Predict the structure of Ribosomal RNA small subunit methyltransferase I.
Amino acid sequence: MNPPAGALAPGLHLVATPIGNASDITLRALDVLARADVLAAEDTRSLKRLLEIHGIALGDRPVLAYHDHNGARMRPRLLAEMAAGRSVAYASEAGTPMISDPGFDLARAAIAEDLPVTTAPGVSAVVTAVTLAGLPTDRFLFAGFLPNAAAARRRALEELAPVPATLVFYESPKRLGGMLADAVTALGPDRDAAVCRELTKRFEECRRGTLTELAGFYENASVKGEVVVLIDRGSLGTVSQIEIDQSLSEALQTMSVRDAADTVSRMLGLKRRPVYQRAMALQQDREDGQDEQD
């Protein structure tokens, strides 16, 4: 059924909002925000400011908060609005909904009830940082936020060490120095990396260097604003990861981590450091599995 002139089709409309510069928003996003029956936002104050900047009248339309703390309570109301044939526009606080954003549960619920879901795509801190960092863009992995605890963070980084892609993380300014130091330990000191901060804002910054250089710079630096960290892929050569893991698992049955890494790197013609890092991760998995059995 075609919607009447001036109205949006019923269902959920995900709206990407600026991560910095208010001009980053798309014409389609402005159109959706102007015509939706119901507006929902992670931060209603941010959305109202955005509407004011772009001259969009709110009228008598409701603006409902939808975030991690009220999602379970607010979701049924928004789903009921869609089921009644109304259009609901959901905007994240900044960037694209569903990317480290509470809109995930709302979209999943709408899909589960066979309600229409569409998106007005736009800016994303992940893609913006990838375009600025100067690291390989043919393949990248967005890993979100790492764990807060240092030990868990190092384990997570070790698991990502062999991934053949540029690694992309969101990080808190307060944890940036510690995260980079752990990355040096888990991924090696010489990997190229970049720290992107305050993207599309007045004081946008993209600092590039090796992990060692960046860890040294940010060790005691005062950092403000939203941060994206990008780290170049490791160099495990053309041997498949399955073959590397199988060889290491066999070697670890009779050898120490160090000896297993030496043996496998020589056998497969690979650089020792990434093989050693992978051996440490596999050994940790073995030990964790034994602890669970005990």
Summary: The mean pLDDT is 91. Strands lie at 11-15, 38-41, 63-65, 87-91, 117-120, 140-145, 166-171, 192-197, 205-210, 227-231. The CA atoms of residues 11 and 116 lie 5 Å apart.
